[in-house]
Amino acid sequence: MAVRVQVSDFDMGAEVALLRRGRTDLGAVVTFTGLVRDLAGDNPISAMELEHYPGMTEKSLEAIEAEAQRRWPLQASLIIHRHGRLAPGDQIVLVATASPHRAAAFESAEFLMDYLKSRAPFWKKEETGRGDSWVDARETDEDALSRWR
Amino acid sequence: MDVLYFAWVRERVGKPREVVATEAKTVADLVDELIAREERYAVAFEDMSTIRVALDQELAELSAPLTGVREVAFFPPMTGG
Asked: Which residues cross the membrane (chain B) (predicted)?
């Protein structure tokens, strides 16, 4: 179980290999990788700046990881979230969950992502040819979270 | 207490953090005090439905008491992931 908030990139394959190392009891590993898209609506973006709240970010990610463990039989989990300036195509976030059964691994990975979207203290600013703008929270993200209540 | 601002709230207030001497009893009282102080706070806190609050790094309501709180943070709805 681990949470990392970092500027540097990550290697999904290496992270999963580390998570599996020395273990033969895992039944399923689900990973999700979030990427910076090159469009904001119809506007091409040149970069994305990701701001976060040092201290609160780590605490809130650890709390949601603990909540996922309470809800599903997780054998391992990992959340890596980047901050700083990212370019289109860059990786933003990695979530990995391992469980004896696939349903728990899929569901808990979705749960972690839904939480990250609207409860973890990150903010995105997109740089476009028309200037910079903060990404608004979307109502659909809130709806996605409500299904876990 | 330490007051922190993030994202566009930080940009509108014009600084990431400051130390505020206050007798405010709740977060809402603190917001009113800041708004009365300078125009830039009025701009930042124009629509409180778009502002989220954390007290000592835990999400809280505007009505939450400030007793014993060391760090207050104001920011827009989060957009991680």
From this structure: none
- From first CA to last CA, the distance across chain B in angstroms is 31
What is the predicted ipTM?
A: 0.95
Q: Which CATH number fits domain B2-75: 3.90.470.20, 3.40.50.920, 3.10.20.30, 1.25.40.80?
A: 3.10.20.30
Task: Decide if A104 contacts A82 (C-beta within 8 A).
Answer: no
**pLDDT at position A141:** 85
Give CA separation, B9 vs A47, A107, B17, in Å: 21, 34, 11
Structural tokens at position B2: 């330490």
* pTM for the full predicted model: 0.94
Interface test with A, best of B12, B50, B74, B79 (most A CBs within 10 A): B79
